Design the sequence.
């Protein structure tokens, strides 16, 4: 029991990402209301964004800006390159997620626009009611 | 000088054209059309230039965007395989752009009753150029994350384009959007797992890192592969993940289906081949994971399901959509047969199937444009009324059935011989049954096209027959690309030997020979 608990706590970021991912997927597949499906989609995408952000994180690390870069040539640099790198969070996954956030916002916008159009055509955004109207 | 910049120009021209159309041609249909056709034509010429360069030198082109060195910078990697697909995508986009001159103004300004909307045609062309940029980008890029971004660029513009069909298209597109987002997110997640294990996103770099024995054993890499391949299968509508495709493509406007239907699925198949053999390896997938038997059975099921469903359709476009589902099965099965013939067949089929689908959708689109009817019976008497369109349709149909010298025959030949070599009789039988069903489907339509309906002849009397013989052909802007596409089907067939030895055969990964 204790071991399982330790395993969960040690990788809590993966567990929380997984739970969010499943909540989103569940909403996308099983919700009847189209806006709820869109919200599920947003949760699903956010879960993946959080996953990426968490893999770039290190304990006690800071943003990757060198303190003694250009213009501070006179000051003595006490750190080696490896020590400096150890103190920085990995910026690459974070930068990738900036792009993914933009993609997510774009998808959300298109999805909401479609829901609005669906509402104008069928007068409802409940999936079962729409399917009934299509059958008529 | 310009020769070195050709790879990026293929992508940059359509991208800039989409901005230029929005900025300078918002009010004018003609200016927007001219910009689009010009951009697509230039992109096509550049793609041919790149292909010639590769054929002359035989070397893979690595283009470093902004001169950032890989693996940190993004690079475009163009070899024999994607040079061919680049020419295919830009060529098909160019032909469809010409085709769109009359169809887009007729179909796009869908409006709700009593609604006043500004000119929408230029907006349509903006999305068109963006979609093509995304597709070309997916094909050219050598970076796994970049591929995701371009996939979403093309997917987002395709959602908007498909929804412009109006009416039922909105709901069909909404479903596609939900499913497509799940697919893209699975891909993104898979890339994330790969990044955790390798620390790299550059495809050639990933391939080198993934060959280490420690990673080959890793369950994380296996999960990454599963997520990536499932994501792509959703995007390409591989059975049983195909549910979104028929509705989304059926209710779209004619031009949109001509552009999206041949290209989106084929580019996804290209993605699958690229990721399987340029990120993972044939050895890893076929020897270590060993799923090929199951996947080929799924592909056989896809072929049978698609063909049989197509047989039952009375709407021309929906029938073609189910044929696409079957064709995706051809290509996935060919790749997963795990031998050189199967892969050659699948890769060659990307080229020939894209052109066949384009040809058939264009011909059907012309019939819908003239008759306003998308059912099978819109085709009656078509040989008299629209002789050129019907000849184009027949050539497309013959290619789909696989009759030499059209290209469909040669891809099927390689796929069947690959299936025999792999001793996968189920797949071989599915291919043959599907060809027979295609023959039934298309000869039924050709028969409808040849004869006017019996009761019409009787009811209106024989002397009216020549009244209906008046030729009502589609406009020249539609005929020209249609005829060129139909000719290309025969040309791709006649030059199949050159294409297969010069382009397709050069990209067979070492593990399969």
Sequence:
């Amino acid at each position: 029991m204790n071991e399982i608990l330790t395993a969960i706590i040690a990788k809590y970021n993966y567990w929380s990402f997984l739970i969010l991912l499943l909540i989103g997927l569940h909403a996308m597949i099983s919700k009847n209301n189209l806006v709820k499906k869109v919200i599920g989609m947003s949760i699903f995408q956010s879960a993946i964004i959080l996953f990426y952000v968490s893999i770039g994180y290190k304990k006690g690390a800071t943003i990757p800006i060198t303190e003694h870069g250009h213009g501070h040539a006179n000051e003595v640099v006490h750190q080696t390159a490896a020590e400096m790198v150890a103190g920085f969070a990995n910026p690459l996954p974070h930068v990738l997620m900036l792009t993914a956030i933009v993609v997510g916002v774009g998808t959300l916008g298109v999805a909401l626009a479609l829901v609005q159009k669906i509402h104008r055509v069928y007068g409802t955004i409940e999936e079962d009611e729409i399917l009934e109207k299509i059958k008529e | 000088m310009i020769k070195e910049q050709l790879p990026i120009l293929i992508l940059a021209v359509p991208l800039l054209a989409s901005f230029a159309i929005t900025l300078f041609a918002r009010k004018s249909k003609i200016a927007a059309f001219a910009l689009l056709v010009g951009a697509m034509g230039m992109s096509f010429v550049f793609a041919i230039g790149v292909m010639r360069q590769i054929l002359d030198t035989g070397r893979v082109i690595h283009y470093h965007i902004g001169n950032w060195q890989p693996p940190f910078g993004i690079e475009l990697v163009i070899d024999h395989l994607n040079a061919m697909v680049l020419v295919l995508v830009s060529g098909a986009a160019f032909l469809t752009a010409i085709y769109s001159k009359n169809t887009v103004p007729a179909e796009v300004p869908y409006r709700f009753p009593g609604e006043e909307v500004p000119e929408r045609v230029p907006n349509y062309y903006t999305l068109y150029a963006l979609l093509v940029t995304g597709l070309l980008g997916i094909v050219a890029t050598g970076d796994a994350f970049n591929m995701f971004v371009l996939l979403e660029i093309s997917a987002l513009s395709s959602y908007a384009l498909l929804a412009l069909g109006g009416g039922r298209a909105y709901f069909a597109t909404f479903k596609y959007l939900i499913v497509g987002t799940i697919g893209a997110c699975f891909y993104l997640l898979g890339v994330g797992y790969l990044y955790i294990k390798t620390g790299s996103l550059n495809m050639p770099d990933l391939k080198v890192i993934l060959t280490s024995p420690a990673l080959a054993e890793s369950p994380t890499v296996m999960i990454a592969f599963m997520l990536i391949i499932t994501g792509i299968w959703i995007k390409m509508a591989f059975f049983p993940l195909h549910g979104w495709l028929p509705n989304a493509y059926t209710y779209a406007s004619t031009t949109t289906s001509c552009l999206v239907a041949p290209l989106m699925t084929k580019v996804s198949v290209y993605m699958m081949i690229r990721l399987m053999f340029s990120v993972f390896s044939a050895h890893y997938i076929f020897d270590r994971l060993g799923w090929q038997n199951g996947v080929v059975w799924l592909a056989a099921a896809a072929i049978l399901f698609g063909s049989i469903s197509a047989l039952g359709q009375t709407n021309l476009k929906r029938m073609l959509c189910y044929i696409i589902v079957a064709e995706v099965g051809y290509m996935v099965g060919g790749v997963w047969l795990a031998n050189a013939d199967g892969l050659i067949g699948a890769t060659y089929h990307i080229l020939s199937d894209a052109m066949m689908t384009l040809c058939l959708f264009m011909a059907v689109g012309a019939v819908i444009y003239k008759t306003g009817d998308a059912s099978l019976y819109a085709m009656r008497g078509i040989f008299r009324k629209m002789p050129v369109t019907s000849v184009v349709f027949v050539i497309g149909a013959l290619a789909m059935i696989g009759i030499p010298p059209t290209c469909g025959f040669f891809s099927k030949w390689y796929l069947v011989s690959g299936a025999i070599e792999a001793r996968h009789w189920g797949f071989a039988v599915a291919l043959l049954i599907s060809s027979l069903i295609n023959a039934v489907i298309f000869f039924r339509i050709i028969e409808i096209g040849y004869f006017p309906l019996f009761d019409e002849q009787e009811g209106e009397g024989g002397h009216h027959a020549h009244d209906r013989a008046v030729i009502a052909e589609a406009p020249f802007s539609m005929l020209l690309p249609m005829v060129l596409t139909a000719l290309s089907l025969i040309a791709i067939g006649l030059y199949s030997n050159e294409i297969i030895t010069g382009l397709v055969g050069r990209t067979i990964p070492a593990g399969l020979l």
User: Anything to note?
Assistant: The interface with chain A takes residues 112, 145, 148-149, 152, 156, 159-160, 163, 167-168, 170-171, 173-174, 177-178, 181-182, 185, 188-189, 192, 195-196, 201 of chain B (CB under 8 Å). Chain B is about 75% helix and 0% strand.
